[in-house]
Amino acid sequence: MNGSDRLQCRAEVLKIERVLAVAPGGLSFLDGRSAADLRRFREQAVAALFDRAPDMIDRIAAATRLVPASVSAAIAQKALGPRLAGAVAGRMEPARAAAVIDRLPVAFTAEACAHLDPRRIPDIVDRLDEDLLVRIAVALAGRGDHLTMGRFVGHVRDSALLRIIPRVDDTAVLRTGFLIDRRDRLGQVVELMGQDRLARVVAAASGAGLWPEALAMAGMVNGERRIQIAELTADRPQEELDSLVSTVAAEGLWQALLPLVALLDDDRLRTVAALPALRDPALLADAVRAVAASGLWGALLPLADALPTGSRTVIAATAAGLPEADLTALLLDVERRNLWELLLPLVELMPEAGKARMFALPAFRQAGPRA
């Protein structure tokens, strides 16, 4: 499992724990499952729990149609409480649910949202007054309920997001982005944030120990937004970047970081290459093995080329000891991307036995550099 998948799996497990009301760490049997498998399991769990709701929930939802929305709101507060009210709202027609929510205290609604059928959120959000939607989002952030925010934010219109973003703190943005259900919407959220706010969010990742969340967000956006995050990260002070590299090494997230490094211009790449953390032989060897497992040679080789000779020698020696299948994959990738000018200097730094292995590989003889 690569680093990006590992982050997706971490987010999915948190979501499943919420759905099943399981304490953190209580689903160890899910370890090793793919993000796609976990997502399917979560969707099945949601369907099983909410589609088989007790008849009483449906009867309460039906009864709300017989009285004004204001009366239903009063009953929700005085008789049902947030948990049951959230369950009932998920069984109501979206327009009716929105009308009742409009008459509830925002704090009550924010608490009830955690118990709402996630599948009903888009239709209800679409019918809520924008001012109310903004207040609910801010209340969720205040409660630290980033998981419920992650369910909602992908369905919130841009005009509301523009009002919500300035009202929530930087760590809330990171935690919510990490848990967002609609990953395809995160790029638009990042664009709405603007350069200055995004820079503060990246800075908060270091101060709050949220580098994994920041890497996950970067992995969910494309094009200019991803480059923007990569550059803002590279512009952080050296000690913060060192903490990023240390976190990546400790949590096995090289496959999430290296594609971002590959997006940097030469000056920023040299800044990263100068980090003290990238002098650690064990850390560099771990990075090489992670790259071999994921085929990210095109991301590692430019960074390796910018590293000092000592670090490059460690990378070369580690690569020389890889299994033949991994070395063959490296050579084929280099040939496809025409990266021989980056690989050959590393080959020169390999031990003599390593060089001999490389030169003897059929892939090297067939696809090696042409004179």
Describe it for me?
- The chain has 371 residues and is an all-alpha fold.
- The protein has a domain of 104 residues.
- The protein is 74% helix and 0% strand.
- The chain is built from 24 helices and no strands.
- Helix 17 packs across helix 19.
- The longest helix is centred in the middle third of the chain and has 22 residues.
- It starts with a helix and ends with a helix.
- The model has no long low-confidence stretch (mean pLDDT 93).
Descriptive key words:
single chain, 371 residues, mainly alpha, 24 helices, 74% helix
Mean pLDDT: 93
User: What class do helices, strands and sheet pairing give?
Assistant: mainly alpha
Number of discrete helical segments: 24
Largest sheet: none
Q: Which percent band covers the strand fraction?
A: under 5%
Question: Which word captures the global form?
Answer: elongated
